[in-house]
Design goal:
The chain is α/β, with parallel strands linked by helices and 592 residues long. The chain is built from 8 helices and 30 strands. The strands form 7 sheets. Strands 21-22-23-24-25-26-27-28 form an 8-stranded parallel barrel, surrounded by 4 helices. A 6-stranded antiparallel β-sheet has the order 3-2-4-9-6-7, with no helix packed on it. α2 packs across α3, α4 runs parallel beside α5 and α7 packs parallel to α8. The radius of gyration is 25 Å and the shape is globular. It starts with 37 loop residues before the first strand and ends with a helix. The structure holds alpha-D-glucopyranuronic acid. Alpha-D-glucopyranuronic acid (GCU) binds next to loops.
Length: 592
């Protein structure tokens, strides 16, 4: 019996996506760049939007590539009809009618590959895809990734054919009940391949990841290194650093992993002298490199220390948001951000509310700026959903694996302003424990909420944190500072507290004396009042002003805002510095 496939079956199949729910790659398969050369795949893409998921329903990925003139029956997808785009980019910024698109989109390009020499491994590296991605090569599904802001690696080796291959990445940015973040957040929901996409060619056995740093409590005299190989090999990897040792150090691997500690007295990385060392790890024919600083961040009681010196964090929060490029962080944008941080006299930046581009921490390593990096466990999350917890934990471990060798990052943030329920407590305690298990050289924090009944800094999650983050907006969302004074009087934390957000909106150019909302004058006055209280409280070890630049948020629709959150110290043109910028810069400069 010849069964003619029903050409309309896809219209009645609402279960079309479940087959792609498996095969998610994550931190275990992530390959650190390790300074290895890559073939950029940023050009030559065709992009087709797909609001109704026709690509999965009608299996666009399985189409052959014959031209329309040779089609026996009509189709709904034609690669060459897609818009020619390059990445990194956000589709929202490519065409006016795509500004608010929330759905799926298909990126397709040819991938020419001379046959890999025996054993060579070909790894697709994606810097980030907002918010999830499915990868197809020549019509074969290779795997998917969840998480809008962390990198992922997918091996192409066995799926590549000699000559031209068809690489397709379906990216979708729908907001979801079980997402991380969920479907409600105060930033713009950009979509697309908004960081670099590249092909890495590696030898048969290669270094998947390295972690190196000072052994905690070793007075800066011992270095640890952990090496993870691509395969469970039993071999010797070698660590090379001519500034530290005059000969390579052996790292025996068993089952593909090895950890060794070495005597060494590196010049410590600090804000004043951000010393970096060029290191190499060799395994077989693979050479992994990085530039790392050695430093120790600790707390004692309610104080914070960098290399044993007391530390006060004078900082500001930043989103990834650009009026022209959306979520894309170019090198120019990152260098400008660091120049503004330095001009502000800040020593600290909170990378809100999700992992930022890898280059930010690398440039802060060089500039001597401290960082709080975090995952978007933001506001309401489906805390009782195991799949959501797995997603959050994977994003956290991908962030740590990517950035574990960045001296500038001193804290991992596991959440922001999450209502204190039993499910939230278990979810975030798990994340705090996962972060601590993965990295014993950094502090764990979260932006906690205020207990409104006790009117105190009371949040049971804090017993699992090293530093308590507190977002407070007394003087903006609440009319005056009396609440902040009352909160401080009612609180006696036993750990350091950082004001992880505080700020007020101001439309650049809007002036007024006294409490004139959205005026530059009130925003500046707000910071003067906040600063006086914060710096008079011994257990507050710093603040991160909310926020460096005005940024897009659809939640903000007054005449002052028009789709922007205006709490920036600088307007969205990233050039117009408001009164508050100068006021805060004066306060930062005057502080020890
Ligand atoms: C919250 C939240 C931010 C938000 C800010 C604001 O604290 O963490 O993401 O943008 O307040 O209200 O401007």
């Amino acid at each position: 019996v010849v069964t003619v496939e029903d050409p309309f079956a896809h219209l009645h199949d609402e279960d079309y996506a479940h087959v792609f729910d498996r095969g998610f790659v994550g931190h275990q398969t992530l390959v650190q760049g390790g300074g290895r050369s890559v073939q950029p795949l940023n050009e030559g893409w065709r992009l087709t939007l797909d609001l109704f998921d026709e690509g999965l329903r009608q299996r666009w990925y399985a189409d052959d590539e014959c031209p329309p003139s040779q089609w026996a029956v009509p189709r709904d997808y034609e690669i060459e009809a897609g818009k020619k785009v390059s990445v990194p980019s956000c589709w929202n910024m490519l065409q006016p009618e795509w500004r608010y698109f929330e759905g799926a989109a298909w990126y397709t390009r040819a991938l020419h590959c001379e046959h890999a020499p025996d054993g060579e491994r070909l790894i697709l590296q994606v810097g980030a895809a907002a918010s999830s991605a499915l990868i197809f090569l020549n019509g074969r599904f290779l795997g998917g990734h969840r998480g809008a802001s962390t990198p992922f690696s997918i091996e192409l080796t066995d799926a590549l054919i000699p000559g031209p291959n068809r690489l397709q990445i379906m990216v979708e940015n729908r907001r979801k009940r079980d997402g991380v973040p969920m479907h409600h957040f105060d930033w713009f929901n950009y979509g697309g391949l908004y960081r670099e996409v590249s092909l890495m060619k590696l030898p048969a056995v290669f270094v998947r990841g390295v972690r190196i740093g000072l052994v905690p409590n070793s007075e800066g005299a011992r270095i640890f290194i952990e090496v993870e190989a691509s395969h469970p090999v039993t071999e010797i990897a070698t660590l090379h650093c001519s500034e530290l040792w005059d000969h390579p150090q052996d790292i025996p691997l068993h089952g593909g992993n090895g950890r060794v500690e070495f005597e060494a007295t590196p010049k410590l990385w600090s804000l004043a002298t951000p010393k970096l060392y060029d290191i190499e790890v060799r395994l077989d024919r693979d050479i992994w490199t990085d530039r790392v600083g050695f430093r120790e961040i600790t707390t004692k009681g309610t104080e914070l220390f960098l290399n044993g010196e007391p530390l006060f964090l004078k900082g500001v929060c930043v989103h990834e948001d650009d009026v022209d490029l959306g979520k894309v962080s170019t090198l120019v944008d990152t260098r400008r951000r660091i120049a503004d941080i330095k001009a502000l006299g800040a020593n600290f930046m909170r990378l809100s509310h999700y992992p930022h581009h890898e280059q930010v921490a690398r440039l802060c390593d060089e500039a001597g700026i401290l960082l709080w990096a975090e995952v978007p466990v933001y506001w309401a999350i489906d805390f009782g959903n195991p799949s959501t917890l797995a997603d959050a934990e994977n994003q956290l471990l991908e962030l740590i694996k990517r950035d574990c060798n960045r001296a500038s990052i001193i804290m991992w943030g596991v959440g922001n302003e999450n209502a204190d329920t039993e499910a939230r407590y278990r979810f975030m305690r798990h994340l705090a424990e996962a972060a601590r298990a993965a990295d014993k050289t950094r502090l764990i924090t979260a932006a906690c909420l205020i207990d409104r009944e006790k009117f105190a800094i009371v949040d049971r999650l804090t017993e699992h944190l090293d530093v308590i983050g507190l977002n407070e907006y007394f003087g903006w969302y609440e009319p005056d500072m009396s609440g902040l004074k009352r909160l401080i009087a009612n609180s006696g934390p036993e750990k350091p507290v950082i004001i992880s957000e505080t700020g007020a909106d101001a439309l650049a150019g809007h002036r007024g004396s006294g409490r004139v909302l959205f005026s530059e004058d009130w925003q500046a006055c707000f910071y003067q009042q906040q600063w006086e209280i914060i710096t008079a409280t011994p257990w507050i070890v710093g603040l991160a002003a909310w926020i460096l630049y005005d940024f897009r948020s659809e939640r903000r629709q007054t005449g002052f805002q028009r789709g922007f959150n205006r709490k920036g110290l600088i307007s969205e043109d990233k050039a117009t510095r408001k009164q508050a910028f100068h006021a805060l810069a004066d306060m930062f400069r005057s502080h020890r």
